[in-house]
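Components:
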Amino acid sequence: MKKSLFLGALIAMASLSFQSCEKLSTINENPNEPSNVDAGVLFTEGVRSSVNTSVNQSYLLGNVASQVAAKTLRAEVGEYSWNAFPNTWNQNYLSLGNLMEAERVAKEAGNNKMEGAAKVMKSWVFATLTLAYGDIPYSDAITGSTNGNWFPSYDSQEEIITGTNGILNELALAVQLLNNSGSVDGDILFNGDASKWVKLANAMQLRLLMYISEKQDVSSQFAAIVANEDLMSSNADNAALTYTGSFPNEYPLVPLKQGDFDAVAISTNALHQLDTTDDPRMYVFARPYNAGDIFTNPATAAIYQGAENGSEACNKDGSRLGYAYYNYPGHMQAGTMAEGIIMTYAEQQFLLAEAAHNGWISDDAGSLHSSAVEASMDYYGADWSMTGWNDFSDFITNSGEGYDGSITSIRRQKWLAMFFTGLDNYFELRRWYSQENGAWANLPFVSAPCSNTNGDALPMRFLYPGNEASLNPDNYQAAVDAYGGNSQNAKMWVVDL
Amino acid sequence: MRERQNRLSHFIAFLLFSFGLSFSAVAQNEIKGTVSDENGDPIIGASVTVLNGSDGTITDPMGQYSINLYDGNTKLIFSYFGFESQTLDAAGKAVLNVTLQASEIKLDEVVVTALGVSREERALGYAVQGLKSKDIASVPAPNAVDNLSGKLAGVYVTGGSSGPTASSNVTIRGQTSLNGNSQALFIVNGVPITNGLFSPGDGLNGSSTIDFGNGAQIINSYDIENISVLKGPAAAALYGSRAANGVIYVTTKTGKDAKGWGVSVNSNTVFETPLKLPKFQDQFGNGGYGKYSYNAGTAYTGDYYDAFGENWGPRTNGQLIKQWDSNGEAVPFEAAPDNMRNFFQTGVSTNNNVSISHADENGDFRFSATQLNRRGIVPNTDLNRSTLQTSVGKKLFNNRLEFRANAMYVGSGSNNVPNAGYDESSSVMYSFLWLPRNTAIDDLRNYWKPGMENVQQAYVEELWGNNPWMIVNENTNSFNANRLLGDINATYHINDRMNLRVRTGQDMKNDIRQYRRATSTKKVLFGSFREDRLSFMENNTEALLSWSNAAPKEQKDLRIDAKVGGNLMLQQSSSLIANNPQLLQPGVFTLTNNRSSVQTEGRSAQKAIRSLFGTASFAYKSMYYLDLSARNDWSSTLPVENNSYFYPAASASVIVSEMADLGKISFLKVRAALAQVGSDTDPYLLNNTYSPSAMFGGYPAFGVNLFATNPNLRPERTTSSELGIDARFAKGRFGVDFALYDMTTQDQIIYLPVASSTGRTSRLANGGAIRNTGMELQLFGDIVKSKAFTWNSRVNIGANRAVVTELPDGVSGGYPIVSSMFPNDGGTAGLEYVAVEGELLGLLKGLTFERDADGNIIHENGYPVVSEEKSTIGSYQPKARVGWMNSFSAGNWQANILFDGQIGGLIYSRSHTLHNTAGNLVNDDDPYLDMNAIDGRMIYDVSYDASGNPVYNLADAGGVVGAGVMYDSNGNLVENTVSVPLRDYYYKYYGNVWRRDNIEPSTFDASYLKLRQVSIAYNFPKEQLKNTMLKGLSVSFIGRNLLLFTKVPTIDPETYSIRNGLFIQGYESTSMPSLRSFGFSVNANL
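Structure:
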């Protein structure tokens, strides 16, 4: 009996081990995550993360570097001691991972419209990256898992924007694809409306052509798009992500703690502009500043004040950003007021106004400018009753903010309208600054920041991040050498005039 | 030779005696006598037991015994290890002297080795060091791992301080992995158990990793029979993959040695207080640049500085200043000394244990129940742990079948585990970085604003920090865990040369954790509630067939023992995380009370390893020993074509002292070993998958994984060699054991960080190699050995260097193991923890001072200049870890004193940087910065004008001139003469202002010495217990971590951080104070 007991045990053990070999690989099949998904679900993730990144970088970098807002604490952006701002680099590339995977899966599935929309988003993110850093990994980027290339080489900015597979051509290709078959799935931006993606793709081409217009004659290309392609026709065509208001799809600034949110205030320059022209957007962009907190002194009349751009030693007492952007504890909810702006109709109209001003197109610069300003006013829900103006037409006619034949009148209003538009407001300021050969005086709505550390010179780029230096060293070094060092003052192609 | 043996046996006998292994009985018929060896020398500690009875005793240092006989029993068994037992009839005798004959089985220490096989230490060709229950239970640490501190050479324990559940990091012979834990494998009664941290997912709801405790800490000190540490792969090769980092083999107590019935009761109570706190200044209070006046708690500029968060404010000289809780009145501005110390309470830990054991010829059992209750030094933190342990042994079929079942159930829970991270939402240490020196901790106790209970907290400012009382009372992290460890094994003796053992063992854990964050918590404004349900199971089933060419007592010149076996391992884990990120109704912590949707995430994983192994041991004339072993594993986690891996080991030893008379050297063994271990990885790392993330409105979302999987992984390999020598002198009174080893882990399976321009953050790859070389030295001896007093001393020294000998392709210039050590800084502050080829593993890398050729700090405009490029400044790795154990005994008194410490190694203290830049410290103990934070401050006197606005009168402009050099107008370096504000000097000294990214001024030589353990015990003599039920009683004073000697300011250098579930050595950030504990212990035997 005892022998049979042990024989039994032995057999049991042996049979356990024999069932093994083929089943080991079955055991390692991941039950938690799919190995195939549709392009749409990747697109949702890619759009959300890239727009969130854009909002965060407009808050801390774009608005501040363009001087519509000022850091009140940790003021390195304002005082021009720039670093890599590695979140801009890292988060954008990680978003590209999802957007380009969506593009790949859509292409494989033969969904043209989906592929086109993914191309538009991809192009937008790459444009932000190259305009912030200059030469960047483009054709080799995001290919690690597919090609095994873990050390992407850098492409020249000129190639990235204007090359055969460059952003401009990708956007044009996207328009073709979007006019073809399929559907834009997982579309949290336009809810599957391919025509709006087409308009965005065209408007983005205009934006990029304007950026490079000092390097190339883009007039005919620009005019051809205006003449032949669908463009945004109202704020309804705005590429701006409407948040749901519930975690984690809230406006990205809402979860900040108050100290962090209050580290940015409306700038002296922006407030001066808004205040002297009695611009109703002031009440949206900023909240009253009454010795600290309006809530503790509700009876006091609202006072608006700007904080100075520049080092922490400068005047930093200013109105914090408006109620739309943050939940002040115990007071009111930002809800879904603020959107994640990719590009607005207003910006497109400013581009057209500038093109008309330059003579690229024959339309009237003044009426285009007026439509741009009005679109911005409407977008921000301008309440004219809070101002001395009767309505928009009163404002544009009598405030001195209409088009007066000068490029400055276009720049100044565009600068305000580009509030919270990613890094693009900085890119525009940089273009104007370069066009003016660094003469701040020719850009009267802004000024060299107070006690800055860069000899009053606007930095031209973000530094390459340290992770590239340690994880992609050879390609990083080649890129740095091309700029004569990883310097914030090195001139990338678009501003190397 | 015989004499040498006998003296050695006496030495051991004496040790046993001094450990007080004695049994007594009370009766009438007393027999006395002396037990001696063939030479007439007394044998100390020989066992004298009554045949068929339950009584027994051992001989004293004179070899004498006395025992009472009753119930008609007259036969006594005299036995001693290394001697043939004798059974004699004492009928009618009052005196019975006995001479024992030495047996041919050689006397030696027996240790538990791989597969749970007890072997003579002399036969081993590799290092195994053991601890007995006495070594562990005399000062039982609540975390079993801490019991090992300082007691074993080459075993590096770094205790944690994050509250009652704090994890302890234990590595043996250094760190073997480029990234990943190098934790030793814990085996309980032959069954591997998990020592995992189980901290999935950093960062939800604003939290950093919360330390719920390492898995092995639940082993109850009172249930441990012995611990055997198998230090290298040679010792551990038979445990497979996970044994590459060494094995800590725990054997729990059984009833086997009970003589009839035995009952023991153990109890200890210890009190805990902070061992070291920062040296705070009390002359200046909250504010900036000498100014402070409360307005709305939101200003960090201008006239108020009421949300400045620092202590660079006015003098705490009683001047009248408006404060946060004074309702707009100006009230005296005074220091609140010890406000941080006063926040902490005295921790109390009680541990009570009862065990019952019984043995007879048919079997044995032991049942033990233990209750541990701890109250942490942080208010409202605790740990309650109940352990039920049982062991049943049974012999069947004429002793041919031995059967044993061990089971341990551990139920543990806590209402709140403190968080020690840099995390405002639940770390009080974060709050204390910015706590005003003028705010008494009791003034913060009412942490809700009146009328706004559960809705709005009250705190000294509105922008940054949370009220520490709210954190501990509302923002709790609780858990409730059940753990069951059990094994059943049966050994069938086929004949006297062959047996078959079958064993199955299981480790099961279920854990429910709840995290609450109150409404108005900064960063979690709506409050949140999250529940995690985690479970883990591992089963190991093993069969082992043993064969020997000789029966146990049979004499053979060449003795061969061979074993073959197989093991099936299956691991299953699952987690379900439900997160309510925003509460709807404040104060109601449920999943359903949500204003946004609840996010859930469920995961499960399984892994299997199947193994076959064999071993053969050869012993020739008890002089030469050779062990050969081999194992093949098949792991489910590797690709089918690479999932089988074979690894061999060989070890040999020679007892030189058996071959020749070595004079004063009474025993000498030389040993050597070679071994290899293969290792697999985690499940599901081969194929690409997509991770789900939260839906956006009605749109589901999936993302590519941040790490790239790899379908071509190969097993990693650890190859080691070891040489050792073990010598005893002066008839065994002194001894030395020395080992040298060299261990290389190559082809590592690692998450290799990749540039984010690839779209991923890391990829899995094989590559890189780490070489650990080191030595272990143990010295021990009876320094004083007399009847009245003995002093036994043991020194353990371990020195290890882990060097990165190879990095994977493409990152040979070095790469960050952890690229950003500071959470939530967006990667700008940049202390990195890097691997560089040819350098020590784990280099600290960051910005440093610019210095001139003589090493002086270069200043510009009066401020230190910090480098633009990062550089490495050294490693956490100590030159050596040293432990010094002393045991004293005098009459009925026994004392144990253990010192341990580390020599060399670096530690970076984020707390020191943060406290100093916040103006919190006196800073007169800083080894680098010879500038205290008191003199040179800017001082204003505060008064108020008629409208109640603050008016500041400058009393002292202050200013400091930093020691160092500067460039003069001609570009020559001259002594720095520029005076600057003290606060700004501090900020620039520690880096680029708020980034505080200069790591040099807070990276210290981490050498320390601790008075680790003290126990003073009184053993009541038997006469005093005569009329009681007690057989033995001892009462002790016990203490742990009583003294700390170090030059490191602000913190206890024995600490680590947990980042992404990994222990990171050499980096401290907002750690809890380490604990000093002291109390008393009572042990009674019935």
